[in-house]
Amino acid sequence: DRVTLFVVLRGAVHVVTLPVVYKALVRKAAAFRAACADPRKDYRAAAADLHRLLLAPATKHLTGVKRLVVCPDGALWDVPFQALVDGRGRFLAEGHEVAYAYSATGAVASLTAKAGRRKPARTLLALA
Q1: Which one, of 53, 48, 52, 33, lies nearest residue 90 by Cα?
Q2: Pairwise CA distance, residues 83 & 115, whole Å
């Protein structure tokens, strides 16, 4: 039920237990994605809430870090982290370059899916 953040820096790994249970995080992530997808909805409150829960507890470890590589898992896979808003109203992307990579779970799923695929036919459709 706990949610854990791993902050991996050169020469150090910090483990931060986040102040949210997984079921609540699933609901908050879904609400944020829905708000981002609908221009009539206000996403900023949800963006600030997720930032407070997911990133604020690791602020001391992220100070001075320019590039964040986010490896989301589960309910966080579809969360646009660059749109999270900090306590000063700034988007995460304003202070950091945000890139994404597979989590361990995602990497295993990708490798498993590749192993079960048939080889492609020897045809090509190219558009320019």
Answers
A1: 48
A2: 34
How far apart CA 95 and CA 11 sit, in angstroms, is: 23
More confident position, 9 or 1 = 9
DSSP-derived pairing of the beta strands 2-9 and 12-21: antiparallel
Match 């995460």 to its residue by tokens: 92
Alpha-carbon gap, residue 123 to 55, rounded angstroms: 46
| Per-residue model confidence as pLDDT tens digits over 59-114 | 999 989 999 999 898 889 889 999 999 999 999 999 999 999 876 665 556 556 66
Question: Whole-model pTM?
Answer: 0.78
The amino acid at residue 57 is P
Angle, helix 22-37 to helix 44-54, in steps of 10 degrees: 150
Strands 67-70 and 12-21: unpaired
Question: Distance (Å, rounded) from C-alpha 122 to C-alpha 78?
Answer: 34
- Residues 93, 66: contact at Cβ < 8 Å? no
Listed in order, strand segments (DSSP E) in 10-96 are 12-21, 67-70
